[in-house]
Input
Amino acid sequence: MKYIKFFILTLSILLLTGCWNYRELEDLLIVSALGIDSNEDGFDISVEVINDKMVGGGEQSSGSSSEETPIVVYSSKAKTIREAIDKIILESPKRLYLGHMNLLVISEDIAKKGINEFLDYFMRDTEIRKTFFTTVVKNAKASDVLKILQPIENITAVSIQSSLEIANVYYGEFSNQTLEEIVRCLFTTGRNPTIAATEVTGDVKKGSKNDNVSTTSPKTSIKVKGTTVFKGDKLVGYLNEKEAIYYAVVRDKIDTISLSFPCDKKDNYANIIIDGVKGKLKATVDKDEPKIAIDIAGNAAITEFNCKIDLKKPSNIKKIEEMANKEIVKQMKKTVKKVKELNSDIFGFEEQFYRNHYKYWKKKKDKWDELFKDIEVKVKSDIKIERISSSVETAKSR
Output
């Protein structure tokens, strides 16, 4: 008898469970990106949805026009993000689905006001994944960015995401890429967040037309432009591409660097590729003063050499190493100076004192902004050249 009861109970559980939130795909509009702009009364919200008639399906040939675009952008205004999205439903032919959102685009204006104003919605909504990429656009509205058609990748959100991923490979993780990482950083003691910066080049209106992708040289494009610097949840400035690389070195978030540096006094340059780059931070206290040491190490190969130096001599290789290390120290000091001027500890100097010198940090935490601007930072670089590539002779030495 007890087995019969167990069978009935198990069968009941199986019948009662299922996809309670199940919806047919054909009844949904897939949101690939969401843009947030500011207005006096709240938010300007734009969503980029995929035109399924134009993207990867048999319907494209029979149910679409060559004049149609692969994406459609809807916009609305409201006091809250949720209300704005609900308003878009009144205009769209289907229900919006944000579960596969790839990208969040934030305008510069709203980033300066503070991103905490809208983060709550994204963290609270159970349908939205927290791993989508995030970017701040420098010189345009977020809604304009979503409308620009890009070559190669016909979905704008996918194109920008791909650009950010490629930048991540060649420039290191110079920013908190996903919403999840940004929120984690906001709750980390002693470190401020960074978000990838993008910039529009060309005319936004022309970029929203099919003509922008039917040419070998698009008139309008979206480019990754270094990283933003936040203080708390507010945007305070930017780092350019080179500064972003050295920020990534400090954070030990980059494996490979391409470094160009002067190799003589005649304005000739050399280039090396540094593999296995390691950045190490060390915090110390000396006579009640905080000090930071940044140590950089890695192995390099010469990829280009435009100076008249004999590379067969070990003593010359040593000189080239000294030139490269001098350039790295120079660029790192420039980056540290820039970040100090912005007065935002994105490096995590304070985090190091919190973790390793807690009593000192507790005593000084309320004055950290003043300490950060004047903190002594020593930079040491120890890059070793292990390979000179396929030729031991330079073109100028022949």
Observations:
- The radius of gyration is 26 Å.
- The chain has two domains: 25-239, 242-397.
- The first strand starts at residue 28 and ends at 39.
